[in-house]
């Protein structure tokens, strides 16, 4: 796949140091990673980032649970790191798309044969701010223990399975709704916080393997998608999805989150850059009613790519075929307070 990259620059020992150096350089308060092998999380990223004041959670893809230990360590998965001086972890949640597909298949062949075999996952962390998270607020502003649900996801890759990508994303949105409702109960019971599902703010990051004009991004951005959207192909998932999702309007599936994408094609022409494919497939979504982007990390210089004849990545100076996304968000609970940054990377 990457014959255009010298073998020494493809070597993981070389690439992992560059990726870690890049993460450290941006210094985000919350870090979301996808395609991290289990062994690399526990033996490399977690110990290294602990030294910088982070804690982390991780889960491999679902197939890992059926493997021997010697094979399991090579399965990739998702990770979330958070700066412990600014956030406390209340609870972590794993979303397994194959389990959800099986539970909601209702005997539907294409749900069982197309969606269920794909073992992609989403990983969510319910975080709560500490006093240090509000360091940019006025001195007399009250300290707020604001709960935030941070989710990272890795959606199926194959363009031939655009229906699966959309179903996985729709199942994820429904699971996040359930997680938010349960989280509100947890906070009320254990933290004595008067929270409901709407007061927990949501940040959703990930490799959605979907272009901006896809059903996946339409659904996340607008909160709705037509039941006869072309991405469903000729398969009818209606009977399954009606059990899972809201159908507020005829012939539409909806979700209640008010999300906006921090990036668009005017800011970032591509997030994945290989010889065969260049496009936007990675995203950071945020709760647009309570968060405002203050700044973004832009793309690599197109002039630099041209001058150095970079036809695809990885490259000796670019350590992944996916570029990092970084957004600085101002979060408004009771008072206005900026969060230093959220990074999505692989």
Describe the structure concisely for a colleague:
This protein is an alpha+beta fold and 346 residues long. The chain contains ten helices and 16 strands.
The number of helices is 10
Structural class: alpha+beta
Mean pLDDT: 92
Quaternary status of these chains?
single chain
Beta strand %:
25-35%
Overall radius of gyration? 20 Å
Low-confidence stretches: 334-339
If classified by CATH, what would the architecture be?
Answer: 4-Layer Sandwich
Describe the main β-sheet briefly. 6 strands, mixed
Termini Cα gap:
17 Å
Fraction of residues in H or I helices: 25-40%
Secondary structure tally: strands: 16
- Write out the strand line-up for the largest beta sheet, numbering strands in chain order: 2-3-1-16-15-14
Overall 3D shape:
globular
* Element-level helix/strand string: HHEHEHEEHHEEHEHEHEEEEEEHEE
CATH class: Alpha Beta
Q: Superfamily at the CATH H level?
A: Endonuclease/exonuclease/phosphatase
CATH topology: Deoxyribonuclease I, Chain A
Q: What is the domain tally? A: 1
Report on this model:
The chain has 346 residues and is an alpha+beta fold. Helix 7 (162-191) packs parallel to helix 8 (215-222). The longest helix is centred in the middle third of the chain and has 30 residues, at 162-191. It has a single domain (7-331), classed as Endonuclease/exonuclease/phosphatase (Deoxyribonuclease I, Chain A), CATH 3.60.10.10. It is built from ten helices and 16 strands. The two termini are 17 Å apart. The protein is globular and about 55 Å long. A six-stranded mixed β-sheet has the order 2-3-1-16-15-14, covered by helices on one side. A six-stranded mixed β-sheet has the order 4-5-6-7-13-10. Strands 8-9 form a two-stranded antiparallel ribbon.
């Amino acid at each position: 796949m990457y014959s255009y990259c010298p073998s020494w620059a493809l070597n993981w020992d070389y690439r992992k140091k560059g990726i870690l150096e890049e993460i450290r350089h941006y210094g985000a308060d919350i870090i979301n990673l996808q395609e991290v092998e289990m062994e690399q999380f526990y033996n490399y990223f977690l110990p290294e980032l602990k030294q910088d004041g982070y804690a982390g959670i991780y889960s491999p893809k679902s197939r890992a649970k059926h493997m021997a230990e010697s094979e399991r360590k090579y399965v990739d998965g998702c990770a979330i790191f958070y700066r412990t001086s600014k956030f406390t972890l209340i609870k972590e949640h794993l979303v397994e798309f194959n389990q959800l597909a099986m539970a909601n298949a209702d005997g539907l062949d294409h749900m069982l044969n197309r969606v269920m075999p794909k073992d992609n996952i989403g990983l969510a962390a319910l975080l709560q701010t500490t006093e240090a998270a509000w360091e940019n607020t006025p001195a007399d502003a009250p300290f707020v223990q604001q709960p935030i649900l941070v989710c990272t996801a890795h959606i199926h890759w194959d363009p031939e399975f655009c229906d699966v990508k959309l179903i996985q994303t729709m199942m994820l949105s429904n699971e996040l709704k359930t997680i938010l409702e349960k989280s509100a109960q947890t906070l009320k019971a254990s933290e004595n916080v008067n929270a409901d599902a709407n007061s927990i703010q949501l940040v959703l990051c990930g490799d959605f393997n979907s272009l901006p004009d896809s059903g996946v991004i339409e659904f996340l951005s607008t909160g709705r998608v037509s039941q006869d959207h072309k991405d469903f192909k000729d398969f009818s998932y209606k009977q399954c999805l009606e059990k899972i999702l809201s159908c507020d309007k005829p012939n539409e599936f909806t979700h209640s989150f008010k999300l906006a994408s921090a990036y668009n094609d005017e800011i970032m022409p591509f997030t994945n850059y290989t010889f065969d494919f260049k496009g936007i497939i990675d995203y950071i979504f945020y709760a647009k009613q309570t968060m405002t982007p203050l700044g973004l990390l832009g793309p690599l210089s197109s002039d630099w790519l041209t001058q150095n004849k970079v036809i695809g990545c990885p490259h000796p100076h670019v350590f992944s075929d996916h570029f990092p996304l970084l957004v600085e968000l101002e979060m408004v609970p009771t008072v206005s307070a900026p969060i230093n940054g959220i990074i999505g990377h692989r």
